[in-house]
Design goal:
The structure is a single chain. This protein is mainly α. The protein has three helices and two strands; from the N terminus they run αβαβα. The protein has a two-stranded parallel ribbon. The longest helix has 19 residues, at about 5-25. The chain is flat.
Amino acid sequence: PHEDNLEATVETLLYKMQHIVKEQLVADVPLGSLLSGGLDSSIITLLANNAYKENGGQNFNTFSVAHAGVNSNVLTDIHQDDDLPWAALL
């Protein structure tokens, strides 16, 4: 059973996410992330950018994909808008 309180749970999750992202940044070539503007890609990109800066690097490269004139997302009750405007903010 999960017995940690909210604060301990958040701290543990953040530590594990930071550790996992840092492990994935070990490479012989420049890295980047596909940034949709959604929560998961935003968190991973934030953690990667922070890890890059901790090691004296520049900002982490991000890429987003959109199709001109075409809404590539299938809008539903849960996903009600296009990701591109959100990706542009990040």
